[in-house]
Design goal:
Chain A: This is NADH-quinone oxidoreductase subunit H. The structure holds two protein chains of two kinds. By secondary structure, chain A is mostly helical. Chain A has helices at about 1-15, 15-50, 65-75, 85-105, 120-145, 145-180, 185-190, 205-220, 230-235, 245-270, 285-295, 295-315, 320-350. Classes of the chains: A mainly alpha, B mainly alpha. The interface between A and B is large, with 87 and 71 residues.
Chain lengths: ~350, ~120
């Protein structure tokens, strides 16, 4: 143990700038990985309760260490390379899925202008990064050279790109009202004296619903998880993956779910703004003031709600059939979103909704 | 202004490092005992009798093409939506016409049955 600490000291004192940069960068990504682990635990626990089971409860207090145990188990397992697979692409696919889903976190704000990158084109960057994820899926399916993987990748890619359109249009409607691509500005545009009635969910209610449903479809989660429909194609695009590359796909999926759970409140539910903003004017103490003044606890509460909704959907809804999924995406969501983009334009033009009032 | 995008680059680099590290660790720590059976593609116990890169339904291809068209439309609408507040009536009418053209194409695709998956 002492030698490890000594080595750490040596590294930090020899490369101070590099250590600093690495530390600063691991700062946001390590909480993300721990968040994923906690989320997996929470999902299994909630689904357990909904099935009148205990859920994981043996490893660590309340089973909290279960996910970490699973990760270490996965890392110690053999990585099987299918004989006919394309080895390079086979290993590139999980990376290609992971990198954009982690990089997207650079622009997520947790307070006014509190983000790693307060980029002006934040929303555009997010759209680009979430679109990149589909390459990982299709590469994995093709490189595995397995029938189930190929079919799963095809289904998954077609589904993801279909819902990408509805999602893109709902982002556009937020943009029209907010007038900025900067995520921090989008949240500030929802501030106002009417509290939660100033947020964009009210004028954009259909878009809000479509956004979250598309987010669920986009991450290939139940009830839209035909990409890995166990009874038909076993596990979909990652059927040939084992050990560490599978762990990377798993990490990506949950990081994407948390990302969608972050974006829904930022775009439609006022991010870190308080639902009773403007109703209470008081200065009590810093640890209660956030309840009416707004702050990161509100953002995390809203994120927690959406993340739990994911689990709730999974436990409650039967899986959609593939043709029903495509019908919902193309024939229901896209027409509604196109109409509502125009409605949002009218709202802005005639001043029915004012940003940042 | 570009300095705001530097963290994005760093995030890309660090997430690449994390991903590569995980896969390398997995390859180092895991056992490696490949057998012909283990390395054969999974097909529910059957022998895989031909290459899996087979023909697939043309509708997937159609969806991909439609996606490109619609995603480009969204890319066009993005800058418009950002500056819409300053454009006024002209912007609203022009985008209305643009969306109308999009809807005409969409109706055509729908009537042609390109969106059917029965």
């Amino acid at each position: 143990m002492d030698s490890i600490i000594a080595a750490f000291h040596w590294f930090v004192s020899t490369f101070p700038t590099l250590s600093m940069a690495l530390g600063l960068l691991l700062l946001p990504l390590v909480p993300l990985i721990i968040g994923v682990a906690m989320y997996v635990w929470w999902e299994r626990k909630v689904i357990g309760w909904m099935h009148v089971r205990m859920g994981p409860n043996k490893v660590g207090p309340f089973g909290l260490a279960q996910t970490f145990a699973d990760v270490f188990k996965l890392l110690l397992k053999e990585v099987v390379y299918p004989a006919n697979s394309n080895k390079t692409l086979f290993l590139l696919a999980p990376l290609w899925a992971l990198i954009p889903s982690f990089a997207a976190w650079a622009v997520i704000p947790i307070g006014p202008n509190v983000a790693w990158s307060n980029a002006n084109a934040g929303l555009l960057f997010l759209l680009a990064m979430t679109s990149m994820g589909v390459y990982g899926i299709i590469l994995a399916g093709w490189a595995s050279n397995s029938r189930y993987a190929m079919l799963g990748a095809m289904r998954s890619a077609a589904q993801v790109v279909s819902y990408e359109i509805a999602m893109g249009f709902s982002l556009v409607s937020v943009l029209i009202l907010a007038g900025s691509l900067n995520l921090s500005d989008i949240v500030q545009a929802q501030a106002g004296g009417k509290g939660l009635f100033d947020w964009f969910w009210l004028p954009l209610l259909p878009m809000f619903v479509i956004y979250f449903v598309s987010g669920v479809a986009e991450t290939n989660r139940a009830p839209f998880d035909v990409a890995e429909g166990e009874s038909e194609i076993v596990a979909g695009f990652h059927v040939e993956y084992s050990g560490a590359p599978f762990a990377v796909f798993f990490l990506t999926e949950y990081a994407n779910m948390i990302l969608v759970s972050f974006l829904a409140p930022i775009l439609f539910l006022g991010g870190w703004l308080s639902p009773i903003q403007g109703w209470v004017h008081a200065d009590v103490a810093w640890y209660v003031d956030w309840i009416w003044k707004g702050g990161w606890p509100w953002l995390f509460l809203k994120v927690f709600f959406f993340a739990t909704a994911y689990v709730w959907f999974r436990a409650s809804f039967p899986r959609y059939r593939y043709d029903q999924i495509m019908r919902l995406g193309w024939k229901v969501f896209i027409p509604i979103t196109i109409v509502w983009v125009f409605v949002a334009g009218c709202m802005k033009y005639f001043g029915w909704v004012t940003a940042g009032a | 202004m570009l300095t705001e995008y530097f963290p994005v680059l760093l995030f890309l680099a660090v997430s690449a490092v994390i991903g590569i590290a995980l896969i390398v660790i997995g390859n180092l720590l895991g056992p490696r005992k490949p057998t012909a059976e283990k390395a054969s593609p999974y097909e529910c116990g059957f022998e895989a009798f031909e290459d899996a890169r087979m023909r697939f339904d043309v509708r997937y291809y159609l969806i991909a093409i439609l996606f490109i068209i619609f995603d480009l439309e969204i890319a066009f609408v993005f800058p418009w939506a950002t500056v819409f507040g300053k454009l006024g009536m002209v912007g609203l009418v022009e985008m209305g016409m643009f969306l109308l053209l999009l809807v005409i194409g969409f109706v055509y695709v729908w009537k042609k049955g390109a969106l059917e998956w029965e």
